[in-house]
Amino acid sequence: MTIGFIGLGGMGAGLVKNLATKGQAVRCFDLDATKVKRMTGHGAVPAASARDAAEGATILALCVTTAEAVEAILFGPDGAAGLLPAGAIVLDHTTVNPGHVDRMNRICAERDLRYAEAPMTRTPIHAEQGKVNVLFGGEAALLEELRPVFDCYAENVFHVGPSGHAIRLKLIHNYIAFANVAAFCEGFALAAREGLDMTKVIGIISAAGGKSGMMDLYGEKTLRRDFAPAMSLANAQKDVKYYAHWLEEAGLPGFMAESVHQTYALAAALGHADEGCTAVIKAYEHLSGVEARLPDEPGS
Fold this sequence. Notes:
The chain has helices spanning 10-21, 33-40, 50-54, 67-75, 98-110, 124-129, 140-153, 165-193, 198-206, 213-223, 233-249, 255-272, 281-288, and strands at 2-6, 25-29, 45-46, 59-62, 89-92, 114-117, 120-121, 132-137, 154-161. It is α/β, with parallel strands linked by helices. The protein folds into two domains: 2-162, Rossmann fold, CATH 3.40.50; 168-288, N-(1-d-carboxylethyl)-l-norvaline Dehydrogenase, domain 2 (Orthogonal Bundle), CATH 1.10.1040. The longest helix is centred in the middle third of the chain and has 29 residues, at 165-193.
């Protein structure tokens, strides 16, 4: 198989590295040429454009930021889909929305292409290690055709159900995760505002029902003021927005979802979109005037 790959961000770079080093023929493109050059060091072939990456590929994988970006890359004025041969697979690793998956299935079928939704969980570190989780929605036969690709970079591949179910479960997962981040950041900010001993906050919360995977990953980093964007605040805002809109379309109340969305939107408006998702705490700190931080270690 020949794989075209578009999008070399935190997750995409790790996927391409593992594809190339494990013997797959992969041609990659990103708007940032330095990222493309970095992948050539692992054996990937550079592409000059999205169309170049797609030309003749039996699989075209996309790992970009939004549903709108995927559709523009594939079907915009210079759409890459026109360079794909009949029967090629469009492998979408982007966290999108349910309506996008429905549209992509329809448009790809009209062009004699096959669409595969495969959003992921875990972090760029797991992508680098070849240990992401892939959530696949679609026919079992298509999954088996893609299995040699997934085996290069996934520790777990979950067949969630028919096409459209994977992105729905991914958005539910991400909403819960980012709501949790917003909740513990709010709590940290209040603890700091009230003068609590910040060295005790995480340990005591995690000794009971407040413990969570996101706090384990990012709690101490937040209080050490480490906002490196393993998962950017902008992407968190986007995912929660997709979830909130989907919830509304489903006819369910979304008071909590919209509150979480607007909390991230405020932090982004304050200039923190490109920082990590826990920079949402800065929205609270902007109002309180107090930073939530651990005391400096002796000698630091």
